[in-house]
Protein backbone atom coordinates (compact mmCIF):
# COMPACT_ATOMS: atom_id res chain seq x y z
CA UNK A 1 0.00 0.00 0.00
CA UNK A 2 1.33 3.44 -0.92
CA UNK A 3 2.05 5.91 1.81
CA UNK A 4 0.28 9.26 1.79
CA UNK A 5 1.93 11.33 -0.93
CA UNK A 6 1.85 15.10 -0.63
CA UNK A 7 3.23 15.45 -4.17
CA UNK A 8 0.42 13.39 -5.72
CA UNK A 9 0.14 13.99 -9.48
CA UNK A 10 -3.33 12.99 -10.70
CA UNK A 11 -2.50 13.45 -14.37
CA UNK A 12 0.49 11.15 -14.13
CA UNK A 13 -1.32 8.49 -12.07
CA UNK A 14 -4.39 8.30 -14.28
CA UNK A 15 -2.44 8.55 -17.52
CA UNK A 16 -0.35 5.55 -16.49
CA UNK A 17 -3.44 3.64 -15.45
CA UNK A 18 -5.62 4.25 -18.49
CA UNK A 19 -2.92 3.96 -21.14
CA UNK A 20 -1.78 0.60 -19.79
CA UNK A 21 -5.20 -1.01 -19.41
CA UNK A 22 -7.82 -2.32 -21.82
CA UNK A 23 -11.27 -0.81 -22.16
CA UNK A 24 -13.73 -2.39 -19.72
CA UNK A 25 -17.46 -2.95 -20.13
CA UNK A 26 -19.83 0.00 -19.55
CA UNK A 27 -20.69 0.55 -15.90
CA UNK A 28 -23.77 -1.50 -14.96
CA UNK A 29 -25.56 1.39 -13.19
CA UNK A 30 -25.02 3.58 -16.27
CA UNK A 31 -26.58 0.85 -18.41
CA UNK A 32 -29.54 0.73 -16.03
CA UNK A 33 -29.94 4.52 -16.06
CA UNK A 34 -30.01 4.88 -19.83
CA UNK A 35 -31.84 1.65 -20.71
CA UNK A 36 -34.05 0.96 -17.67
CA UNK A 37 -37.46 2.27 -16.58
CA UNK A 38 -38.05 3.57 -13.05
CA UNK A 39 -41.05 5.07 -11.24
CA UNK A 40 -39.04 8.01 -9.83
CA UNK A 41 -37.01 8.74 -12.96
CA UNK A 42 -38.35 9.80 -16.34
CA UNK A 43 -35.52 9.75 -18.84
CA UNK A 44 -37.35 9.31 -22.12
CA UNK A 45 -35.40 6.73 -24.08
CA UNK A 46 -36.99 7.82 -27.37
CA UNK A 47 -35.55 11.30 -26.89
CA UNK A 48 -31.87 10.28 -26.89
CA UNK A 49 -31.46 10.08 -30.67
CA UNK A 50 -29.42 12.94 -32.05
CA UNK A 51 -29.03 14.61 -28.66
CA UNK A 52 -25.57 15.60 -27.44
CA UNK A 53 -24.17 14.03 -24.27
CA UNK A 54 -20.81 14.73 -22.65
CA UNK A 55 -19.11 12.09 -20.51
CA UNK A 56 -16.89 14.13 -18.20
CA UNK A 57 -14.00 12.04 -16.89
CA UNK A 58 -14.76 9.23 -19.31
CA UNK A 59 -11.81 7.07 -18.26
CA UNK A 60 -11.16 4.42 -20.89
CA UNK A 61 -14.24 5.33 -22.96
CA UNK A 62 -16.39 2.42 -21.81
CA UNK A 63 -19.57 4.43 -21.32
CA UNK A 64 -19.23 6.19 -24.66
CA UNK A 65 -19.89 2.86 -26.37
CA UNK A 66 -23.22 2.50 -24.57
CA UNK A 67 -24.17 6.14 -25.12
CA UNK A 68 -23.63 5.77 -28.84
CA UNK A 69 -25.70 2.57 -28.88
CA UNK A 70 -28.73 4.25 -27.30
CA UNK A 71 -28.65 7.04 -29.86
CA UNK A 72 -26.61 9.92 -28.46
CA UNK A 73 -24.04 12.03 -30.23
CA UNK A 74 -21.35 11.24 -27.67
CA UNK A 75 -18.47 13.41 -26.49
CA UNK A 76 -15.85 12.60 -23.88
CA UNK A 77 -13.42 14.57 -21.71
CA UNK A 78 -10.26 13.39 -19.96
CA UNK A 79 -7.37 15.16 -18.28
CA UNK A 80 -4.42 14.40 -20.59
CA UNK A 81 -3.86 14.01 -24.32
CA UNK A 82 -2.33 10.59 -23.75
CA UNK A 83 -5.56 9.34 -22.17
CA UNK A 84 -7.61 10.92 -24.96
CA UNK A 85 -5.47 9.19 -27.60
CA UNK A 86 -5.93 5.86 -25.85
CA UNK A 87 -9.71 6.34 -25.64
CA UNK A 88 -9.90 7.13 -29.36
CA UNK A 89 -7.87 3.99 -30.10
CA UNK A 90 -10.16 1.93 -27.86
CA UNK A 91 -13.26 3.26 -29.61
CA UNK A 92 -11.80 2.75 -33.08
CA UNK A 93 -10.94 -0.83 -32.21
CA UNK A 94 -14.60 -1.27 -31.26
CA UNK A 95 -15.80 0.16 -34.56
CA UNK A 96 -16.71 3.63 -33.26
CA UNK A 97 -15.14 6.43 -35.28
CA UNK A 98 -17.45 9.40 -34.68
CA UNK A 99 -17.20 10.06 -30.94
CA UNK A 100 -15.35 13.27 -30.08
CA UNK A 101 -12.94 13.16 -27.11
CA UNK A 102 -11.12 16.23 -25.82
CA UNK A 103 -8.73 17.25 -23.05
CA UNK A 104 -10.37 19.14 -20.21
CA UNK A 105 -11.10 19.26 -16.50
CA UNK A 106 -14.18 19.63 -14.31
CA UNK A 107 -13.69 23.39 -14.11
CA UNK A 108 -12.56 23.90 -17.71
CA UNK A 109 -14.61 22.00 -20.28
CA UNK A 110 -13.63 22.59 -23.93
CA UNK A 111 -17.15 23.25 -25.22
CA UNK A 112 -19.30 26.26 -25.98
CA UNK A 113 -22.07 27.40 -23.63
CA UNK A 114 -25.36 25.49 -23.95
CA UNK A 115 -23.67 22.77 -26.00
CA UNK A 116 -25.05 19.60 -24.38
CA UNK A 117 -28.52 18.17 -23.84
CA UNK A 118 -27.15 15.71 -21.26
CA UNK A 119 -24.02 15.64 -19.13
CA UNK A 120 -22.71 12.49 -17.42
CA UNK A 121 -20.05 12.52 -14.72
CA UNK A 122 -19.63 8.98 -13.46
CA UNK A 123 -17.17 8.60 -10.58
CA UNK A 124 -15.45 11.83 -11.60
CA UNK A 125 -17.01 15.11 -10.46
CA UNK A 126 -15.56 15.06 -6.94
CA UNK A 127 -11.83 14.96 -7.81
CA UNK A 128 -10.40 18.31 -6.79
CA UNK A 129 -6.73 18.28 -7.80
CA UNK A 130 -5.32 21.64 -6.69
CA UNK A 131 -8.74 23.30 -6.50
CA UNK A 132 -10.76 23.81 -3.32
CA UNK A 133 -13.64 25.48 -5.13
CA UNK A 134 -16.25 22.88 -6.00
CA UNK A 135 -18.67 25.67 -6.89
CA UNK A 136 -16.55 26.29 -9.99
CA UNK A 137 -17.36 22.74 -11.12
CA UNK A 138 -21.08 23.33 -10.66
CA UNK A 139 -20.90 26.54 -12.68
CA UNK A 140 -18.94 24.88 -15.46
CA UNK A 141 -21.34 21.93 -15.73
CA UNK A 142 -24.22 24.40 -15.96
CA UNK A 143 -22.40 26.52 -18.54
CA UNK A 144 -22.07 23.72 -21.11
CA UNK A 145 -25.60 22.35 -20.54
CA UNK A 146 -28.66 23.73 -22.26
CA UNK A 147 -31.44 25.06 -20.02
CA UNK A 148 -33.52 22.07 -18.86
CA UNK A 149 -30.62 19.79 -19.84
CA UNK A 150 -29.97 16.75 -17.65
CA UNK A 151 -26.98 16.24 -15.35
CA UNK A 152 -26.30 12.64 -14.25
CA UNK A 153 -23.79 12.03 -11.46
CA UNK A 154 -22.39 9.31 -9.25
CA UNK A 155 -20.86 10.50 -5.99
CA UNK A 156 -19.37 8.31 -3.22
CA UNK A 157 -21.13 8.30 0.12
CA UNK A 158 -19.18 8.99 3.31
CA UNK A 159 -19.24 5.23 3.98
CA UNK A 160 -17.62 4.37 0.63
CA UNK A 161 -14.36 2.43 0.78
CA UNK A 162 -12.55 5.32 -0.89
CA UNK A 163 -12.80 7.35 2.31
CA UNK A 164 -11.56 4.69 4.72
CA UNK A 165 -8.70 6.20 6.77
CA UNK A 166 -8.89 9.46 4.81
CA UNK A 167 -7.92 12.74 6.47
CA UNK A 168 -9.91 15.95 6.65
CA UNK A 169 -8.27 18.88 4.87
CA UNK A 170 -11.04 21.44 5.34
CA UNK A 171 -14.75 20.79 5.88
CA UNK A 172 -16.08 18.86 2.89
CA UNK A 173 -12.66 17.96 1.48
CA UNK A 174 -10.82 14.72 2.29
CA UNK A 175 -7.28 13.61 1.49
CA UNK A 176 -7.20 9.97 0.41
CA UNK A 177 -4.55 7.95 2.25
CA UNK A 178 -5.50 4.27 1.92
CA UNK A 179 -6.72 3.59 -1.61
CA UNK A 180 -6.61 -0.18 -2.19
CA UNK A 181 -6.03 0.43 -5.91
CA UNK A 182 -3.01 2.71 -5.29
CA UNK A 183 -4.31 5.45 -7.56
CA UNK A 184 -5.66 8.16 -5.27
CA UNK A 185 -3.35 8.39 -2.27
CA UNK A 186 -2.73 12.10 -1.81
CA UNK A 187 -5.71 13.15 -3.93
CA UNK A 188 -8.27 15.54 -2.46
CA UNK A 189 -11.92 14.59 -2.95
CA UNK A 190 -15.04 16.63 -2.30
CA UNK A 191 -16.96 14.56 0.26
CA UNK A 192 -20.69 15.12 0.78
CA UNK A 193 -22.49 14.45 4.04
CA UNK A 194 -25.70 13.16 2.48
CA UNK A 195 -28.26 13.74 -0.29
CA UNK A 196 -29.28 17.06 1.26
CA UNK A 197 -25.68 18.27 1.05
CA UNK A 198 -25.45 17.23 -2.61
CA UNK A 199 -28.68 19.01 -3.51
CA UNK A 200 -27.71 22.15 -1.59
CA UNK A 201 -24.34 22.30 -3.36
CA UNK A 202 -25.75 21.92 -6.86
CA UNK A 203 -28.99 23.87 -6.39
CA UNK A 204 -27.42 27.18 -7.36
CA UNK A 205 -27.66 26.04 -10.98
CA UNK A 206 -29.77 22.86 -10.97
CA UNK A 207 -33.27 21.76 -9.98
CA UNK A 208 -35.66 18.77 -9.95
CA UNK A 209 -33.29 16.44 -8.10
CA UNK A 210 -33.94 12.70 -8.13
CA UNK A 211 -31.71 10.40 -6.07
CA UNK A 212 -30.84 6.74 -6.34
CA UNK A 213 -28.48 4.71 -4.20
CA UNK A 214 -25.91 1.94 -4.53
CA UNK A 215 -25.03 0.03 -1.37
CA UNK A 216 -23.07 -3.10 -2.24
CA UNK A 217 -20.33 -5.06 -0.52
CA UNK A 218 -18.01 -6.06 -3.33
CA UNK A 219 -16.25 -8.77 -1.34
CA UNK A 220 -14.83 -6.39 1.21
CA UNK A 221 -15.17 -3.07 -0.61
CA UNK A 222 -18.03 -0.86 0.61
CA UNK A 223 -19.30 0.25 -2.78
CA UNK A 224 -21.64 2.99 -1.57
CA UNK A 225 -22.68 5.76 -3.96
CA UNK A 226 -25.26 8.45 -4.47
CA UNK A 227 -26.80 8.50 -7.95
CA UNK A 228 -28.10 11.94 -8.87
CA UNK A 229 -30.19 13.13 -11.80
CA UNK A 230 -31.16 16.80 -12.02
CA UNK A 231 -31.87 19.48 -14.59
CA UNK A 232 -30.19 22.78 -15.34
CA UNK A 233 -32.25 25.79 -14.31
Describe this protein's structure:
Helix content is 25%, strand content 30%. The N and C termini lie far apart (44 Å). Helix 1 packs parallel to helix 4. The strands form two sheets. The protein has a seven-stranded mixed β-sheet, sandwiched between helices. A three-stranded antiparallel β-sheet has the order 6-7-8, with no helix packed on it. The chain is built from six helices and ten strands; from the N terminus they run H-H-E-H-E-H-E-E-H-E-E-E-E-H-E-E. It is of the alpha/beta class. It has one domain (10-232): Rossmann fold, CATH 3.40.50.150.
Break the fold down into its secondary structure elements and pairings:
Elements: H1 10-19, H2 28-35, E1 52-56, H3 62-69, E2 73-78, H4 81-93, E3 100-103, E4 116-122, H5 134-144, E5 145-156, E6 167-170, E7 173-175, E8 188-190, H6 195-202, E9 206-218, E10 221-232
Parallel strand pairs: 1-2, 1-4, 2-3, 4-5
Antiparallel strand pairs: 5-10, 6-7, 7-8, 9-10
Helix pairs in contact: 1-4
**Main CATH class:** Alpha Beta
Strand pairing plus helix content: what structural class?
alpha/beta
Span from first to last CA?
Answer: 44 Å
Instruction: Give the total of domains.
Output: 1
Strand content: 25-35%
* Helix-strand sequence: HHEHEHEEHEEEEHEE
Fraction of residues in H or I helices: 10-25%
Rounded to an integer, what's the Rg over CA atoms?
Answer: 17 Å
Low-confidence runs of at least 5 consecutive residues: none
Mean pLDDT: 94
The total of beta strands comes to 10
> Which descriptor suits the 3D outline?
globular
Q: Enumerate the strands of the largest sheet in spatial order, edge to edge or round the barrel.
A: 3-2-1-4-5-10-9
Instruction: Summarize the main sheet.
Output: 7 strands, mixed
Helical stretch tally: 6
